[in-house]
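Following up on my earlier thread - several people asked me to post the actual chain instead of describing it. Fair enough. Here it is, all 698 residues.
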Amino acid sequence: KIVSGTLTVNYSTYTGGETVAPPVRLSPSNISIFNEVQDSVVNADEIQFSGNYVPRLAAVSGKADTYYILTTEHIKNNSTMLDLFIKSKVARNFDVYLVTEIATYHNNSVNNSGWSTQIGLKGNAAAENIRSYLTESNRFFDIDYLLLIGDPHPGTCAIQAGNMNRFVGLTKVQDCLNDDTDAGDVPMKWINIGASSSWSGFCRDWDSANGVCNNNPGVTDWLEPEDIRRASPSDFYYSALTGNWDTNGDGLVGDGESSGGEAELYNLDKDPDLSLGRIPVYNNNISELDKILFKSVLYENETMASSELWRKNIFLPMVPSDETTPGWLLGQAIIDTLPAGFNHYSLYWNAPYPKTHDNSLASCNDIVDGTGVDYRTCGNVQNRALPAACNAGEEIYTFCNNRTDFFQKHECVAGGNAWQLSGICSLNKDLGVPQSDFFCVCDYHFENYQPADSTSTDAMFGNVDQNISENAVTQIWNDTNDDKHIFGAVTWWTHGGVSSASHVLRSVNVLLTDAGGNWINLDDSHPAHTFQVSCQNSWPESPLNLAYSLLRNGAVTAISGARNTNYEDSEFDIPSGTFSNPAITDNNGWANETMGYFYTYYLTGSDGSGPLVSGRALNRVQEELDFNSFRRNLVLFNLYGDPSLGIETYYDEKDSDGDRIRDGFDNCPHVSNPNQLDSDGDGVGDVCDSCQGVYNER
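Reply from S.P.:
Thanks for posting it. Predicted structure:
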């Protein structure tokens, strides 16, 4: 008679030639192998399972997944939470390597070689050393997860990059690579993605009306191929390790995202070799690093019973990108594929969307679809500004007497250098004012077509459908008294800047604290996985970038673009009155909204294989989308936070004191202490330490 035994489950991560996710949780309820075991023994009714099913990610050989932490000696020696973070990873059966510039720490041993040969390396020199080290290490140790900890600033020229007005003349990528002023110690790498691109953002004088780059006499309106404004910092350089990033050996990597020109990025083997995340450290602020590390530890040591109360709630704030592209299309696409057990909370734009048209009033006609519903209504004529220069004899009309139906004429004086008034204020009918002298403002009525969002049935708002706003977002996200407002994941779509996502969030409000230093907005005790379909939010040069701000408060991982990312327009069909955006669910696509859709798809396990951890979900997006139209999106999105965390990263264990930390990791398992404070570092929490201040392990 069998009285005890150990069951080992071997599985392959390849099925039918495709990579599949290994299970992150084994339990009698969801693995049929246990039923098969019961059928194979004589005392099936006496079999008991301990309930301690650790979320492990083991390879088919039985080898634990390899987890590399790459940082600096200074951070390693001054962080008070790095050891606890490593301990937590080891408990999850990871084989952890801590690598600094000069040493590798592994299983209580030290190897006096690291990712460099000297302390203090910065900028491009540091970036190249890091990649060389990772490439070599991955060949021998098959790195599964990589966490970068340090300052991500890629170099001084990043201050100027993306800003057309900050400097005159050409600033070359190569000059920036050779100048490490202000560069970080664990920097992102400059990728020359736009060397051959004809994207409008790389034109000094883009004619939006005609969709062309103006060719002004004596001026090169396209930025030169080596101009720094065509480049972007990225961590993808450290995860795609097998491809050749510099085929011509000129020292500039990723030249060209399209098939023309050098096409280095276009021809790159884009499949990542590992799952990568980073925790930025700005201004040597290691205390903020420790808070983020500790939050990650608490997250992965939460119990299943506690986690399942909130992690499967998904928040979807969506804002229009232009007059034909309402964000709610992405929200609804995600909702339509969420697996059973997941809940959603949507917040959409519920008001006319204004747009000023730079053309004649004659083309600003109202649009009514085939069902008789207004899609576009126009009015509120606006002045066109007088040009700085003019041609002799030219005439332009503007409003006068604070009226939109009275006009006055301006004439260009001889020589063509100035305007002068000519004539009196008169009604349009008396003067025959040219319509081309004015702008028209049109309202696009998305609210007539979109489904009602979750605010329409929320007592917080009196069951009245709300328009999306930063106030509404923070009000919802910060309400811990209502379970449906506690979120495990947040995906949004809107325009963005370094520290803002339009109508959704700004860093200044994310980081707002009370007099006691406690966060006022968002809920950092239930941190979410965010995917930010908004430009520039992970801008690595600024400590106020929105992704890092969320990592400090509100998020456990945050994914967003380091520069401007690209979306694909939706289409509005006038006869049927319907919107469509096939790019959203196109797994051969490239658009940022497509990335947001598929990341959420894999994070939640909508494909039926179970939720993936954040880093693996991003890997699937990078592997499966085509990106041939805009490879910059492949490079631009970076993950801030621990890549091994996911919605189902938890333990099926007991939590005796109700502090949401499993007994097996809790330093005081029978007295609630969610902060796990251990002042003397003896492994016993202060609230139950028999001798605080003395290392006594009791």
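Confidence is low (pLDDT under 50) at residues 12-34, 49-62, 158-170. That should answer part of your original question.
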